[in-house]
Design a protein that fits this description.
Length: 158
Amino acid sequence: MCLDSPVGRQCVSKEDYALIKRKGLAVVDCSWARLTDVPFAKLRCTAPRLLPWLVEANPVNYGRPCELSCVEALSAALILCGEEEIANLLLGKFKWGHAFLSLNKDILKEYSKCENSAEIISVQNSWLTQQTQIQNNQLPSKNMLGMKEDVGAMQKQI
């Protein structure tokens, strides 16, 4: 099984498509505040995977990076594996689902062109660098979403 997990060592990508088709895709449904309580080592998962930098659209964390809801995480993983139609179906069940796709449209488009984790990380880092440069030059950008401090903080973590 492929698990969207903060303990993964590589990003979910098209390389995981066959595994996901065969074994499935999962997330752990828990509060981000209680993530340390999750016994990741005990989970039966052969492929823990990370997700690249994305912005939430759910009402609880709207506009915040990297703390996706379960449906956002599943949908993002599906899009990265080439299953955009299923991702749209999942997000369509939520009033705010379309907003996730809208907020992340440009970066998801770039991520979905990638074949493997290394390419996704490269795209992510280039995009974050570009956003930081835009921020530092104080040029308006539809991608900034008013998260100047979050972009810089996320880039330092990567």
